Structures are given as C-alpha cells and as structure tokens.
Amino acid sequence: MGAMFLVFMLIIFFVEIISRTILNTGMQYDLEMWKYAKYGKQVAMNKEIGHVHKHNSAFHAMGVDVNINSMGYRDHELSNPKKRNELRLIMVGDSITFGWGVLQDQTVSAKMEKILNTENKKFINVVNTGIGNTNTSMQVEFFIEHAEQLEPDYVVLNYFINDAEKTPTYKPLNFLSRHSYGYIYMNGRWDTFKRMLQQKKDWKQYYLDLYNSEAEGWLETQKAMIKLKSYCAELDIPLLIVNYPEMREFEPYPFKPITAKIGKIAKTLDISFLDLLPSVSHVDPKELWVTEPDPHPNAKADDYFAQAITEHLESAWGL
C-alpha cells in the first residue's frame, strides 16, 4: 500500500511539473483561462452580475498582456465627468468584446474607435466593458450598475450564442483549483474525454438546446434585453444589438435559426440589429481563430467585425 501511494504521489508530482513547464506554453486554453480567472477576476458583490474584473490588475494570458483599469475595464482610463467634446459608445459583452487572445489595441472596440475618429470633430470614445465568461443577463446588470460612471451616449450589446447560458453560482475553490496547473490541465482533458464518449452533449446540440422556449438562460436573456431597452429608451440612448457568429463553421452556418430568434427579439423591442456573419462568411474560419483549439476571433476577425459595425453605426446613427 505504501509503495502504491508513493507511485501515485510521484505521478501527481510529474504531471504538475510537466503542466507548469512543457504544457504551459502560454497558449494552452484551459491553463490560460485559469490564469485569467485567478489574476483578473473576482466574485461581484451583486449576485446578478456574477463576477467582475479586479481593478488595476495586470497579467499575461493567451499570448497577450492584459491591463485592467481603475474602473475594471480593459481600456484606457476614463475621465469623470467626461470631456466637453467627448461622446461615449459603450461596448457591452463577453470575452469576444474583451478581446480574448488579442492585443488591447487590436480589439473590436479599439479598432472602432480609430475608424470613427478619422474625421469626427467630436471624440467618440469606444469603451470596452467586456468581461469573459459572462452572459447577457450579467452584462446588462453590470452596465446598468455602472452607467452613471460610464455616461453613455450610445450602447452596443455584443451578443454571442453562448450568452443565453444560465448565470453561474460561485462556490469556494479547493486548494488544487486555486494552485495546481496539473489539476486544471487534467480537468480539461477529462472534459474532452467525456465529450468524446458523448456523456456530454455535442457542441452544436448544446447551443441549440440553449434556445428551447422554456430554457431558463434564454428566458433570462430576453428579460435582460427588455431591461436594457427600457433603460436606454428612458434616457434616449440609441441601442444596437450585434450578433457575432460561432466561428467553427460558416458554410453552411448551423445556427441561422438562433440568429433569427435574436433578430426577432430585437425587432419586437424596436432595437437596431446587426448580424456579423456576412462580414466573415467569405473567409476560411481557421484564418480567424486565436488558435485551432480556441476559435475565439483573432485580430484579423476583429478587423472585419469593427468595419462592419462602424459602417452600420455611420448609416444608422450618423456617427
């Protein structure tokens, strides 16, 4: 028994060492998401928001430096109150808006700011409030709680297909979850193995099931969109919903019915709506991924997205 325990401990030791050295390339998705959570996030006081960024934090994840400002955004510091000639366009969203795996000056928000200010007499400050691993309900609650500080003139809700997931609950992490590279890496491999055995749903079916009429997360999402619309309408703030495509397959795109549902909600609420699939459907999806195992949009994809959004805003709002 003693010998078996010793062998077991040696295996754990070697897995930890390998995970911290050979596997810790700076681009291994599970480890990099863990670093983001460990160094960049904290549980929010408001349970409906879930989690927020740690203010004034800095870390390296998925190949890029990340700097969070004193207000908790991955953006430059904001003056408070805003400057006399300043207009603020607030980008509300998840890890795509945040710019996972993308340099700060290459995010959709940063690229939009450059495009919009080419000929403008007033400065349009495009503020990136994106937080990874959040859903639409969490994002809307976060925006409304910080709206007085943000002083928005325009709002863009950046929507991705998994934003209809339920708001998570948070439990204290065990020692291994907080400190062990090996534990995080092996957990990721175990999850992959279960998917291969179909103990977990196929990724396409998982997304489709999120939009069942009685799915709790989808119902929460619709309520959040209504809440955001009401808030913006009361203050006469233009609102746009932008739908980002799932990046694995474009032709044929497997989630057109879901895009149609989002568009229908926007139309019912009289919210301007933009689908970004046409902006990238002519490109091989693999050219637009951060890495092959991680199909978050890279800087090239963000070029297409930023151009499409700004063209829509220039046409719809005269920016």
Record keyword descriptors for this entry:
12 helices, alpha/beta, Rossmann fold, five-stranded parallel β-sheet
What would you note in describing this structure?
With 319 residues, the chain is of the alpha/beta class. The chain has a single domain (26-170, 198-317), classed as Rossmann fold, CATH 3.40.50. It is 45% helix and 15% strand. The chain has a five-stranded parallel sheet with strand order 6-5-7-8-9, sandwiched between helices. It has a two-stranded antiparallel ribbon with strand order 1-2. Helix 1 crosses helix 7 (181-196), helix 4 (108-116) crosses helix 12 and helix 5 runs parallel beside helix 9 (216-234). It is globular. 37% of the residues are buried. The mean pLDDT is 93.
